Amino acid sequence: MLKTVEIWCLSLGALLLSMLLIAAFIFTTGNSPSEVFHSLYRGAFGSWFSWQNTLVRAAPLMLTALCTALPARVGLIVIGGEGAMVVGGLTAAITGIAIQDAPSFMVMSAMMIVGGGCAGLWILAVGALRHYRNVNETISSLLLNYIAIAVLNFLVVGVLKDPATLNNPSTYSIGEKNMITSIGDSSVHWGLVYGLVVCLAMWFVARRTTFGFAADVTGGNIRAARLVGLPVAKIVLLSCFLGGAAAGLAGVIEIAAIQGRANSSLNAGYGYAGILVAFLARHNPLAIIPYALLLGGIQASGGLLQRAHDLPDATVAVFQGIIFMMILSSEMLYGRIKFLQPKSMIS
Amino acid sequence: MKQKSQLSLSRRKFVKTASIAAAGLSMALKTPLALAAAKVKMGFVYVGPRDDYGYNQAHFEGKAALAALDWVKAVDEENVPETIEVQKTMESMIQLDGAQVLFPTSFGYFDPHILKIAKRYPDTTFLHCGGLWDAEKHPKNVGSYFGYIDEPVYISGIVAGHMSKSKKLGFIAAIPIPQVLRNINNFTMAARSIDPSITTTVVFTGGWSDPVKEAEAANSLVDQGIDVLTCHVDSPKVVVETAEKRGIYSCGYHTNNAVLAPKGFLTGAEWSWATVYKNYAELIKNKQPIPNLVRGGLKDGIVKVSPYGAVVSDAAKADADKALASFMDGSMVVYKGPIKDNKGNTVIPKGKSYLQTDTWLESMDWLVEGVVG
Amino acid sequence: MENDIGLWSVLIAVLGGAIRVGTPFIFVSLGECLTEKAGRINLGLEGNLIMGAMTGYAVSYLSGSPWLGVLAAGSSGCVLGILHALLCQNKQVNDIAVGIAMMLFATGIAFFYGKAFIQPSAPHLPSIGFGNWSSSPVIKAALDINVLFFLGVALAPAMAWFLRTTRWGNAVRVVGESSDAALSLGMNINRVRLLSTMAGGGLAGIGGSYLSLYYPGSWSEGLSSGQGLMAVALVIFARWNPMNCLYASLLFGGAAALGPALQSVGINWGYYLFNAAPYVLTLVIMIAASSAKGTVRGMPGEFVK
C-alpha cells in the first residue's frame, strides 16, 4: 500500500514542480501565469463543454497508451502506437465498406475484430522479431510507423479512393448507420467508454491474473522467468498483441466515431501522444486514465491559449515536454525518500 | 467595398436558399451572445502555420485585413488537424468567443467535421473554403467559397511559355487532387497556347509540407533541363528559392513570392481573401442573407496576378495582359474542346466547352496533353 | 536516346541527392553513434535537429554570419544533450522515454521561438563549386557541395580513429560495453556518458543547421520530416561503425532523391511507396543482420540491458 502512497506523492510533487516551471516559462513570454493557468483550467475542465472537449481528446490516448504500456510490462519499449492505430483504422474501414449493408452491430463487431486483430499482429511482429531474432523493438516499431503511414497514403490516393472525396482523398464511407453514436446529447462518443473499459480490463489482467503476474516476472527478469518455467515467448507475444490491438481499436474508433472513412487524418499523432501517457502512468493501465485526461485537457485548452493570450500553438508542446521531463525526473527518487518506504523493504 | 451582386453564384440556388439563410441569421442575432456585443464576431481556422508564405498565410492576411474594421472581432487558430480537434476548435470559438460565423479554411475540414458541428449549431454560419455546397445534401447554415486560382495560374503559364527556352516547364505538386490537377492543366494549356511544343513535367511529393522533398524535386526537374518552375504545395518558399539558386525562372503561388527570387521571378497566382472576408463581414453587419456558394476569379478580386518580375519580356507581358483582359471581361473559356488528356483520350470533344463556373471542372481527374507525369 | 540522357541524369540526381539530402544524416547518425557507443540511446536527436535548425537560422539572421549560426546550433544541441544525460543518470529512468520527452520539449521550444524567423531570409552557408570544370549545369549542380558535407566526411574517420585508438575513445567503448568493467577500471561512467551524449547532441544540432542554412535552406515547422528519428535506425543499420554511418547516410540521402528523380523523367508510379523505401530497407537489413543468439556484431554490450 505504501508503494501507492509513494507513487501519489512523487507524481503530485513532479506535477507541482512542472507547474512552477510552466509558470516561469509563461512569465518569460510576458504573459501573466495566473491568467494563463486560468485559461488552461477554463479550456480543459472549466465547464461541461470543456470537459467534453477534454474527454474526446483523451479517448484515443487511453488506447494508444496501452500499446506502449503493455509491452513495457514484459520489458519491451514499443513506440509503434501510431502505426498500429493506422493499421487498425485502415483495415477496419476496408471491413466496414465491404460489409456495409449487414446489421450495424455486426459491422461494428467485424471492424473491431479485424482492426484490432490486424493491429495486434502488427505489434506482435515487433515482439516476435525481438524475441526470436533480437531485433531492437523500439527501432523496428518506429520504422513500422512510417511504413504503415506510407501504405495508408498509397491506398487512399490509389485503389481505395472514393472519387467523390475530391480534394481530400479518402476511402468510401462505412455508412452513416454503422457509425458510433454520441453518449446522450453530449458530443462525447461511446468510444470513450471502450477506452475506459479496455484500460480497466487490462488493469485487472495485469493485477489480478496469473498472466499479469507472469508478465511482470518476465519483465523483471527474463532469465528467472525461463528458469521457473514460464512460457516466456507466449507472454511476450501476447502482451505485444494486446498492446497493438488496443491501439488498433483507437483507429477503429477514429474511423467509426469521427471520420467515417479512412484518410491521411488517421495519422494525427495520437500514437506518439500515447507513448507519453504510458510513461507518465508508469505503464499502469489504471493510471493511464487520469494521465490521458491531463494530456487531453492540456490539448483542449491549447486553442484558448492561442485565441485569448496570443500564444503560439507550440506552447502546448512546451507544457507537455516540461511535465513529461519532470515526471521522468521524479523516477529517480523512487526508493530514496525514507518516510515513504515500508520498514522491512529498506535495503 | 464590393457589393453582394458581384459575388458570382448560381441564381437558382441563391433564390432557393436566401430566405432560409436570412431566417437563420435573424435567429443568430436573437441569441444573447450576439446581443451582448454589437461587433461581428468571426473565427478562422488554419490547418498549418499562419506565416508560411503559402495557403495559410493567404487566409491569415485576409483575416488580418478585417482588423482595420473596428466593428469586427476576428479570432483565429493555427495548426489545427482535420480530426475531432477541428470540431472542438469550432465549438470552442462558438461557445467561448461567441463567434457568429466560422471560416474553417482547409478542404479536409468539410466532411465530416463542419457538417457535423453545423447540425449541432444551427444558428451559427459555417463558411468553408474550397468545398462544394450542395442544397440537396448540406445544411442551410453551411456555405462554401473558393476562388478560381487557376485563372492567374493561366496567366503564369502564358508568361512561362514565353520565357522558357528549353520548352520544358516543371510543376511540383503535393498530391493529385482536382484543385491541383486543374492548376497543372491551366498552366500547361496556357504555355502551349504560346508554343504547342511545350511540355510540363510534374513531380508529386506526396505531402503538403515536405521541404526536403520539394527541394529535391526542384533540383531533379532542373537537371532534366526544365527552365521555369512553379508549384502547388502549402508553402512555395522552398521551390521558388531553389529555382532561384539554380538560376532558372519561377512562378509563385498562394502569396506574392517576388522577394524569394529577385532575379528569376516571373509572376504568380495569389489569393486575395481580404475581399471575400470583408464582403462577408458587410453582409452580416447589414443583416443581408449570406449566399451559400461563392465562387469568383480575377474579375471578382478573389484572386490576382503577382506583378511581373523585371526579366519578363514585353511580348510575354502583352500576351499575358491580353489574357488577363479577357478573364476580366468574362470572354475567356479555358476548357474549350477539343481537349485531349495526356494518355491520348479525348476528354472534351470538339464544340463542347465548360465555363469557369461549371462544377464539372471541380472534380477533374485527368491531366491535359503535354503534361509528363 | 533521349531516355538514355534521362536515366543518366537520374543517376546524377541521385548522387547529388545523396550528398545534399545525406549530409544532415551524417551528423545526426555520427552523434547517435557516439552516444550509443557509450551505452545510451538518445531518441531525442530529432529535437536537437529541429532546435539546431531554428537556432542556427535565427542566429545567422540576427548576426549576419551563418557560421555563428552553425556554432549556436551545435551549442543548443550540446545543451539538450547534457539535459538528456543528466536525466538518464539514474538507472530507474528510461533513456528512450527521456529521448521522447526531450524531443517534445525541444520541438515545442523551437516552434515557439521560431515563429519570428519563418518569414525573414537568413544568410546561407557557402558552397564550393567542384563541378566548375564541366560545361554541364547538371554536373555543376550535383558537385556544388557545402562545406559541412566535407566536415561530416572528415568527421567519420576521425571518430573511428578516436574510438579505436585514443584513451578517451577507449573509455567510451568500455563504458558502452560493460558498465561493470568500467567500474572496476575506476572510470566515471556518468561523466563519460555525459560527454558523449553532449557531443552527440551537438553534432545533431549542426545537422539541423545544415537543413535551415543550406538545404533546403529556410526555417519552417515542417523542415524535418523525421530525419533525427531516422538517424537512430541508421546507426543500427551501420552497426555502430562511424564509417558505415557515413555510407549509410549517403545511401539514405540517395534513396530520398530517387523518388523525385524518377518522377522528373516521367516514372511516377507509387511515389508514396518510394518515400517509404528507406524505412523498409532499414527494417529488412535489421532483420537480416540480427541473429537468434545474443548480440549483433559491433553492438555495444550495454545496448540490450
What would you note in describing this structure?
The complex is a heterotrimer of chains A (347), B (373) and C (305). Chain A is mainly alpha-helical. Chain A has helices at residues 2-28, 33-44, 48-73, 81-98, 104-133, 137-157, 191-208, 210-220, 222-227, 232-259, 270-280, 285-309, 314-330. In chain A, helix 4 (81-98) crosses helix 11 (270-280). Chain A is globular and about 60 Å long. The model of chain A has no long low-confidence stretch (mean pLDDT 92). Chain B is an alpha/beta fold and 373 residues long. Chain B has two domains: 4-147 and 272-300, Response regulator (Rossmann fold); 150-270 and 333-372, Response regulator (Rossmann fold, 3-Layer(aba) Sandwich), CATH 3.40.50. Helix content of chain B is 38%, strand content 20%. Chain B has eleven helices and 17 strands. Chain B has a seven-stranded mixed β-sheet, with helices on both faces. Chain B has a six-stranded parallel β-sheet with strand order 2-1-3-4-5-11, with helices on both faces. In chain B, helix 3 (55-66) links the parallel strand 1 (40-45) and strand 2 (72-77). Chain B is globular. Mean pLDDT of chain B is 88; it is low at 1-36. In chain C, helix 1 packs antiparallel against helix 9 and helix 1 crosses helix 10 (227-237). In chain C, strands 1-2 form a two-stranded antiparallel sheet. The longest helix of chain C has 36 residues, at 2-37. With 305 residues, chain C is mainly α. Chain C has a single domain (2-303), classed as ABC transporter involved in vitamin B12 uptake, BtuC, CATH 1.10.3470. The mean pLDDT of chain C is 88. The A-B interface holds A 42-43, 49, 53, 56-57, 153, 157, 163-169, 187, 254, 258-260, 263, 265, 268-269, 299-300, 303-304, 306-307, 312-313 and B 75-85, 87-89, 91-93, 95-97, 107-108, 110-112, 120, 130, 132, 175-179, 206, 362-363, 365.
